[in-house]
Amino acid sequence: PKGLAIVSEVSGTVKMEETKKKRSVTVVAASGEEVSYDIPFGSRLKVSDGDGISAGDEITEGSVNPHDILRIKGVQSVKNYLLSEVQKVYRLQGVDIND
């Protein structure tokens, strides 16, 4: 799907690599595990080289797939995410809601 954010699956430090053909972000965990993500050239990054990142944090801008949040962070986190997204829509329309 278009416009989906890339979400980190592990906590660690961001390492960025860019060549003529591709951009990639690698998250290096404290245990030494490395998870690499290919970044499309049109995507805007939300992280910089050397940043600390937690599992479930967005690497690129865009909408987050709730299935990714569920897989990485669990049921309560996906509930909180969906609630905040619904509240955001209501607030954009100027509707006051009771939190």
Order of helix and strand elements from N to C terminus: EEEEHH
Domain unit count? 2
Overall structural class, as computed from helix and strand content, comes to alpha+beta
Q: What's the average pLDDT?
A: 92
Summarize the topology:
Blueprint: E1 12-18, E2 23-28, E3 34-39, E4 52-53, H1 66-73, H2 75-92
Antiparallel strand pairs: 1-2, 1-4, 2-3
Helix pairs in contact: 1-2
Give an account of the 3D structure.
It is a single chain. By secondary structure, this protein is α+β, with helices and mostly antiparallel strands. The model has no long low-confidence stretch (mean pLDDT 92). The protein folds into two domains: 1-62, OB fold (Dihydrolipoamide Acetyltransferase, E2P), CATH 2.40.50.100; 65-99, no CATH class. The chain has a four-stranded antiparallel beta sheet, with no helix packed on it. The chain has helices spanning 66-73, 75-92; strands spanning 12-18, 23-28, 34-39, 52-53.
Short description:
With 99 residues, this protein is α+β, with helices and mostly antiparallel strands.
